[in-house]
Amino acid sequence: MxxxxxxxxxxxxxxxxxxxxxxxxxxxSMKEYETTKQIRRWLEEAGITVLEYDxxxxxxxxxxxxxxxxxxxxxxxxxALPIKEETAxxxxxxxxxxxxxxxxxxxxxxxxxxxxxxxxxxNELKGNVRILFQPAEETSQGAVLVEKAGVLDGVEAIFxxxxxxxxxxxxxxxxxxALMASVDRFEIEICGVGGHAGIPNNAIDPIVVTGQMIxxxxxxxxxxxxxxxxxxxxxxxxxxxxTWNVIPEKAEMEGTVRTFQNEAREIIPDLxxxxxxxxxxxxxxxxxxxWYPYIPVVDNSPLFTKVAAETARDLGYEVVTAAQSQxxxxxxxxxxxxxxxxxxxxxxxxxxxxHPSFTLKEEALLVAAQYFAKLSINVLNQWK
Length: 384
Ligand code: NI
What we know:
Helix content is 34%, strand content 27%. The chain has an eight-stranded mixed sheet with strand order 1-2-4-3-5-16-6-15, sandwiched between helices. Strands 10-12-8-13 form a four-stranded antiparallel sheet, with helices on one face. A two-stranded antiparallel ribbon has the order 7-14. α3 (104-120) links the parallel β3 (67-77) and β4 (126-134). The model has no long low-confidence stretch (mean pLDDT 97). It has helices at 5-24, 33-45, 104-120, 142-148, 206-224, 262-283, 305-314, 331-335, 364-381; strands spanning 49-51, 59-64, 67-77, 126-134, 155-164, 171-174, 177-180, 182-191, 195-196, 231-240, 246-247, 250-259, 286-295, 298-300, 318-321, 340-346. The chain contains nine helices and 16 strands. The protein has two domains: 5-179 and 297-382, Aminopeptidase (3-Layer(aba) Sandwich), CATH 3.40.630; 182-295, Alpha-Beta Plaits. With 384 residues, the protein is α/β, with parallel strands linked by helices. Bound molecules: nickel (II) ion. Residues 102, 104, 162, 353 line the site of nickel (II) ion.
């Protein structure tokens, strides 16, 4: 069943109002209480079944197809950022210092549009579509929370998007394999022996040890990783000492590692630990290396590359090869459990993500709604 031009215009109008409502009332990660209520209200208005899970924030719904088949999921993130909005839009944030500067308002409204279309077209569905409005993407907490609540139980595949300001409206970026980088954090604490700056032989200087470590850690990417892999190890904080004539006892470093290969991600922490422990031992210092795994690589399953591109073309949209991004996305967490595909949705915005003047073209809402509705139908129809 194809929508008439009037029906399309009506849906677009509704999605614009949803997006503006969300934009005006942004909420930070794990505080999306009003957003949760509002999404629930919209789903109920559309006659879509809301599923109950033990989640403080976020909403899950499901559209049951008229024919039996597997269950797949569409995911939108719903949180905003601690940024003071500078767009001067008439529907700017009313929540001082909080802004939808990553376009998650767009994702939520767009996937809501797909849900509305799927509810109307459920007799075309050979299976079910679960809709996840996930909280706390920005803090990498949401996907884990949702999965632990059992939301993915019985789900066979998952699909999602991020808006892309540098692509025009009506263009969809598709890429098999790694799309977005892994994001991890590390801390290194070096413990030496403090003493008189003029008598270093009676001390173990943690600053000199730290200096050696900083240089040696850079060698991991160039000497220990295969040339087919890539990664960055960035040390972003170094702290030690508090005066000019005393050798301090301790030094601390902190930083992040990003890569597009889960294989590289797995070996880097061990290499870093070995490197800093070796250097500390050479100087007689002690070291504590702490690794905080955040999110893996957004790694698109080859099972869905063809259908992701063909769906866009069927609807008359442009398909481009998606450029990789060094930003992270907690959608990656779902992809460690089940096959998934994440696309770029062109929104033709003037600024990159997380900028106080970030905005986008709302015409892309209907594109996203149509694309994800059609993608769900196609994936379920082609399911083997
Ligand atoms: Ni985002």
